[in-house]
From TrEMBL, chain A:
A Pfam match: ABC_tran
ABC transporter domain mapped to chain residues: 23-263
Organism, scientific name: Pallidibacillus pasinlerensis
Keyword Transport in record: yes
SMART domains: AAA (SM00382)
Keyword set includes Transcription: no
Name of protein: Phosphate ABC transporter ATP-binding protein
One term of GO molecular function: ATP binding
PROSITE patterns: ABC_TRANSPORTER_1, ABC_TRANSPORTER_2
Cited InterPro entries: AAA+_ATPase, ABC_transporter-like_ATP-bd, ABC_transporter-like_CS, P-loop_NTPase, PstB-like
UniProtKB/TrEMBL annotation, chain B:
Pfam families: BPD_transp_1
Protein name stated in the entry: Phosphate transport system permease protein
Organism: Pallidibacillus pasinlerensis
Transmembrane annotation, as ranges: 21-44, 75-108, 120-143, 155-178, 223-244, 269-288
Gene name as annotated: pstC
CDD domains, A to Z: TM_PBP2 (cd06261)
TrEMBL record, chain C:
Species, as recorded: Pallidibacillus pasinlerensis
CDD domains, per the entry: TM_PBP2 (cd06261)
Span of domain ABC transmembrane type-1: 60-262
Transmembrane feature ranges: 12-33, 56-85, 97-121, 127-147, 243-265
Gene name of the record: pstA
Primary location group: membrane
Membrane topology: Multi-pass membrane protein
Family: Belongs to the binding-protein-dependent transport system permease family. CysTW subfamily.
Swiss-Prot/TrEMBL keywords: Cell membrane, Membrane, Transmembrane, Transmembrane helix, Transport
One Pfam family in the UniProt entry: BPD_transp_1
PROSITE patterns referenced in this protein's UniProt entry, alphabetically: ABC_TM1
Protein name: Phosphate transport system permease protein PstA
Localization terms from the record: Cell membrane
InterPro entries with a match to the protein in the record: MetI-like, MetI-like_sf, Phosphate_PstA
UniProtKB/TrEMBL annotation, chain D:
Chief localization: membrane
General function of this protein: Part of the ABC transporter complex PstSACB involved in phosphate import. Involved in the system for phosphate transport across the cytoplasmic membrane.
Membrane topology: Lipid-anchor
Keywords, ordered alphabetically: Cell membrane, Lipoprotein, Membrane, Palmitate, Phosphate transport, Signal, Transport
Source organism per UniProt: Pallidibacillus pasinlerensis
Span of domain PBP: 34-264
Descriptive protein name: Phosphate-binding protein
PROSITE patterns: PROKAR_LIPOPROTEIN
């Protein structure tokens, strides 16, 4: 536990000096019809870091995560105000959602592989973006599966149905599927909540490795997980960001009483 | 990879996206266009006698006499016959079909269900005429001989034939709906100590309600719309039925029987009969839509 | 008390199913017993003769014509309409209107479709009594069935598939064609089977739009007689239950073959996944 | 929204274009089929239809011609021939005044007897025209009153507008309004025959050509229903079978078919079909 905090401590010190802001959120509000779900969210997410979003159920952390690649567009009657800026581009001002989602990948709470083979699942994204060359696809699939630390487990059964894998394996194939698009940002919505402890550990290790290539935003229920894997943590409550800071700061000297109460398990 | 080809291909994608969306909308609108055309043509033809030729619509609806060759057009007996036949067949057909669907989806041992479900599906495709042939050759004489009637062509014969005909529709559609109910609902109920049967009736059937409603609407459509099978077993007499053994002439039968031979006002009055049938169906659909909307909340 | 109720309800379920099966087996059995003697090669592939003793080949061909043409038109339209309603439309007045229209089409008696077809396709569009007029009428008849079953099938496709695909930066159209529709194929097939049943079973509407010419159709603009109309006319005009039953056997076998094919296809598709 | 409107209008226009081209395709199609032989369209009476089919079958073997016969009832056939939808209409009843007024020409191609039939077990086998009328108007409701068993009479009639029914009612002398209300209405001769053949109570009327062992033909005023008795006018229930057409619509081929029917070969076929030839 302590080492984990120390580790993230080190990396965030580096971040202070040479990391850039990847995603900048300013006064972001979101409404489901009449009901407001996010209130004036403002925070900066740094490049090649893991940012954890924590908070009790229904606090808006998943909603916020889904705002970053505009998955909330799928729901009728969603209205937003404020800005989310990725690489100097306001994602709600551009009409190119495809480009946005290509750049910002996502891994969901439950593994949601398609009813196709493992290979087809991973190759799905590249194919949809016009890559037809078999060799190129083979290479992408292998690289992605290696990147998701699952290549060795599935390399002999690439053509079999992906739905035959265990939950933990499926989730890592989901990560491979996201990586295959060569995104810059990966959003993870409680990626381990449906997994057993060993699979969870594997995914966490993977996240730790991945941050050298990707900017990762992860929603989690599990505070130890946030402490283990993340560099920064934002604490959400009732649609507001109560506190956002380096993870070790949040977990050792929270500024807000509510953060402290949540972290120490007094509610949530 | 430079930016411009990607953006270009994205532009093409968005264009296709818009185009396909509109194309799908157009496909969806074909139902509306068709309905409008059907209503337009049937109402135009059917209302001509009342608008242009001075026939009374009230006399048409509530008149007891239908003698086209003597210019008497009253469809009241047919309205009554249609209502009795449809309601009667639903009373018999819906519970049997629904219970069969429940049995197949929930209780039947797997091998049995595996054989029976497709067989019932097969039966959904059997032409209605064959049910009429069976009704005429078997049910009509059976009723006549066992109930001591002068004729077996009767309201009850119509009801039985219609009930049989709607069985496959009710069974297959409800079965699909019941199977679509998530396992977790059942487990949740069973875990609370509710029996299997209790779970089926308290949890599964209510959860499958919209599908079951669809089954009922579909089969009601089939019952009210059935013509050829009914012609053969109804007797087609022009009286207001006072008992199940009276022979009757439902609205559809009236149209089918006389359409080939009708011309002029007579033909237009058959279209008017169609309007009555139509109105019933539109009202029914409206009521059912309300019911299911309420049930959904 | 509860146990007794349970047993009673369980008994009713068993009884209803048994009743359904007995009824349906009786009908099929009756038709087979009455008609099987007439069935032979010449009966099915022989040309029709009004003087008696001929075959039903012209009606078989006509039936195939109407099925193929109506499905070719109705299936894509129906599937895309369902796609619009389930995947594209925002809830609102337009969707309510479309749904109301579709529901209403379901309930319209086929005899009224026949009236409409006779006035619109036969007379107004001047197709004459013909296979194409009947097929277009049938297209409208089966449209609601295709739409409804496709919608039900689309509903069963998990939302997570859509999210998973869209999150990869694919368009709705790509998601639809590559993920959603393939997952919905078995459901859609069952809708098509239901529609085929409806086409094969239809008599009133075809009677008024395709006519009753008992000859091999020369093309889609010929007037012709389907198997079902033939069996109806045989019953009506000559009261020949045996011939009607023999035609019934042919119809049932066609439906059986169609069903088996569809089941086989959907099984194969599922395995390929 | 405006864009959607524009787009839908565009699509509808497209659909109409497709439909229209399909129409013209249809016209081409029927033209091209004329290469194989002329297509003669005939529609009308279901009583005349079977006979016409038999005649057409023979004629098609002789001539390069396709004959399309649609059995849709006398009135519809007459209307079709007036509108030019069909070249020839078939009728099993006389033309009504307004139909004659629209300029139709009629040709009698055969005579048909209408036979009152009962279940074979019925002891009653001879009725007067007046008794027939009393049965069909509901004045007599039990076979006992006519010397039969104590069975309620079930009347089976054709539908209003049927040529056979019009002809029958005219000869027997009652109107549609007088027909007993709870009579079974059957569409088609076969249906009536089948109904009567399976019901001891029933009585109905059918065309000559449909009579067989399954039903008992009733003598009218003691005269049996035979072709001879129709031709020598002792059997009262008979009517003509008509072909009707507008002179300006009748093609050479159509005239050829009518000539064939009226020839001795054609009348031979009529006789073989169990219908009464002209001579």
């Amino acid at each position: 536990m302590k080492t984990a905090i120390n580790l993230s401590n080190d990396s965030s010190v580096q971040a202070e000096t040479n990391k850039n802001v990847k995603i900048s959120v300013n006064n972001f509000n979101l409404f489901y019809g009449e009901k407001q779900a996010l209130y004036d969210v403002s925070l900066d997410i740094y490049e090649k870091e893991v940012t954890a979003l924590i908070g009790p159920s229904g606090c808006g952390k998943s909603t916020f995560l889904r705002s970053i690649n505009r998955m909330n567009d799928l729901i009728d009657n969603v209205k937003i105000s404020g800005d989310i800026i990725i690489d100097n581009e306001n994602i709600y001002r551009t009409n190119d959602v495809i480009k946005l989602r290509t750049k910002v990948g996502m891994v969901f709470q439950k593994p949601n592989l398609f009813p196709m083979s493992i290979y087809d699942n991973v190759a799905y994204g590249p194919r949809m973006h016009g890559i037809k060359n078999k060799q190129e696809l083979n290479q992408i699939v292998e690289e992605s599966l290696r990147g998701a630390a699952i290549w060795d487990e599935v390399k002999d059964r690439l053509k079999t149905s992906a739905l035959g894998l265990s939950g933990g394996q499926q989730q890592r194939v989901c990560i491979a599927r996201a990586i295959a698009m060569k995104p810059e940002v990966i959003l993870m919505d409680e990626p381990t909540s449906a997994l057993d402890p060993i699979s969870t550990l594997k995914v966490e290790e993977l996240v730790g490795k991945m941050k050298k290539d990707y900017t990762i935003v992860i929603v989690t229920h599990n505070m130890q997980q946030a402490a283990r894997v993340s560099d920064r943590t934002a604490f959400f409550l009732n649609g507001e960001v109560v506190e956002y800071d380096k993870t070790d700061t949040i977990f050792s000297v929270p500024k807000d009483k509510r953060t402290e109460d949540y972290i120490t398990g007094r509610f949530g | 990879m430079s930016d411009s080809p990607i953006e270009k291909s994205n532009k093409r994608k968005y264009f296709l996206e818009k185009l396909s969306g509109r194309f799908f909308l157009f496909c969806a609108l074909i139902s509306v266009i068709s309905l409008a055309l059907i209503i337009g043509f049937v109402f135009f033809k059917g209302l001509t006698p009342f608008v242009a030729d001075g026939y009374s619509f009230v006399d048409f609806i509530f008149g007891n006499d239908w003698v086209p060759s003597e210019d008497k057009f009253g469809v009241f007996p047919m309205i009554v016959a249609s209502l009795y036949a449809t309601i009667g067949s639903l009373i018999i057909g819906v519970p049997i079909g629904l219970f069969t669907a429940v049995f197949l989806a929930e209780i039947a041992p797997k091998p049995i269900a595996k054989i029976l479900s497709p067989s019932v599906q097969l039966l959904a495709g059997i032409p209605s005429v064959l049910f009429g042939v069976f009704g005429l050759a078997v049910i009509v004489p059976f009723l006549q001989n066992n109930l001591g009637l002068p004729k077996g062509q009767s309201l009850i014969a119509v009801i039985i034939v219609l009930a049989i005909m709607m069985l496959p529709t009710i069974v297959t559609v409800s079965e699909t709906a019941i199977r679509a109910v998530p396992k977790s609902y059942r487990e949740g109920s069973l875990a609370l100590g509710v029996s299997e049967i209790g779970t089926i009736f308290k949890v599964v059937i209510p959860a499958a309600k919209s599908g079951i409603m669809a089954a009922i609407v579909l089969s009601m459509g089939r019952a009210i719309g059935e013509t050829m099978a009914v012609i053969l077993v109804a007797g087609n007499s022009l009286i207001i039925p006072t008992s199940l053994t009276d022979s009757v002439r439902p609205l559809t039968t009236n149209i089918a029987l006389e359409m080939g031979y009708a011309a002029g006002t007579h033909q237009e009055m058959l279209f008017a009969t169609g309007i009555v049938l139509f109105s019933f169906i539109l009202i029914l659909n409206f009521v059912l839509a309300k019911i299911s909307a309420k049930g959904g909340q | 008390m509860n146990k007794i109720k349970d047993h009673l309800l369980r008994g009713i379920l068993w009884f209803s199913s048994l009743l359904t099966i007995v009824i349906l087996v009786t009908i099929i059995g009756y038709i087979f017993v009455k008609g099987y003697k007439l069935i032979n090669f010449d009966f099915i592939f022989g040309d029709y003769s009004p003087t008696g003793g001929g075959g039903i080949w012209p009606m078989v061909v006509t039936t195939i014509y109407t099925i193929v043409i109506s499905l070719l038109i109705a299936t894509p339209i129906g599937i895309f309409a369902a796609v619009y309603l389930q995947e594209y439309a925002k809830q609102g007045r337009l969707v309510r209107i479309i749904r109301f229209a579709t529901e209403s089409l379901t309930g319209i008696p086929s005899i009224i479709y026949g009236l409409f077809g006779a006035v619109f396709f036969v007379a107004t569009l001047n197709f004459g009594m013909s296979i194409i007029a009947a097929s277009l009428t049938l297209t409208i008849i089966i449209l609601p069935v295709v739409i409804r079953t496709t919608e039900e099938a689309l509903k069963t496709v998990p939302q997570s598939y859509r999210e998973g695909s869209l999150a990869l930066g694919t368009t709705k159209l790509q998601t639809l064609l590559k993920v959603i529709l393939p997952s919905a194929v078995p459901g859609i097939l069952s809708g098509i089977i239901l529609s085929m049943g409806r086409i094969i079973g239809e008599s009133a509407a075809i009677f008024l739009t395709a006519g009753t010419v008992a000859a091999l159709p020369e093309g889609i603009f010929s007037s012709a007689r389907t198997l079902t109309v033939h069996s109806y006319l045989v019953t009506q005009e000559s009261g020949d239950i045996e011939l009607a039953s023999a035609i019934g056997i042919v119809l049932i076998v066609i439906i059986l073959v169609l069903n088996l094919t569809a089941t086989y296809i959907s099984k194969k598709l599922n395995k390929a996944d | 929204m405006n864009k959607i409107k524009k787009f839908s209008i565009y699509l509808i226009a497209l659909a109409i274009t497709v439909l229209l081209s399909a129409c013209s395709g249809g016209a081409n199609n029927s033209n091209s089929s004329s290469n194989d032989g002329y297509t003669l369209s005939i529609s009308g009476s279901t009583s005349v239809g079977p006979l016409a089919e038999k005649l057409a079958e023979q004629y098609e073997q002789k001539e390069e011609i396709n004959i399309e016969i649609n059995q849709i009832g006398s009135s519809a056939g007459i209307t079709n021939s007036i509108n030019g939808v069909s070249e020839i209409g078939m009728s099993s009843r006389d033309l009504k005044e307004e139909e004659v007024a629209s300029g139709l020409t009629e040709t009698i191609i055969a005579y048909d007897g209408i036979v009152v039939v009962t279940h074979p077990s019925n002891k009653v086998d001879d009725l007067t025209i007046d008794e027939v009328k009393q049965i069909f108007t509901g004045k007599v409701t039990n076979w006992q009153e006519l010397g039969g068993d104590d069975l309620e009479i079930v009347v089976v009639s054709r539908e209003d507008g049927s040529g056979s029914r019009d002809a029958f009612q005219e000869i027997v002398g009652y109107s549609s309004g007088e027909l007993i209300k709870n009579s079974i209405i059957a569409s088609g001769n076969g249906n009536i025959k089948n109904t009567v053949a399976t019901n001891k109570h029933a009585v109905g009327f059918i065309s000559f050509e449909y009579v067989d062992d399954s039903v008992q033909p009733i003598k009218i005023n003691g005269v049996e229903a035979t072709p001879e008795n129709v031709l020598n006018q002792t059997y009262g229930l008979s009517r003509p079978f008509l072909f009707v057409y507008k002179d300006e619509n009748l093609s050479e081929e159509g005239q050829g078919f009518i000539d064939f029917i009226l020839s001795s070969d054609g009348q031979q076929i009529v006789a073989e079909a169990g219908i009464i030839p002209l001579k």
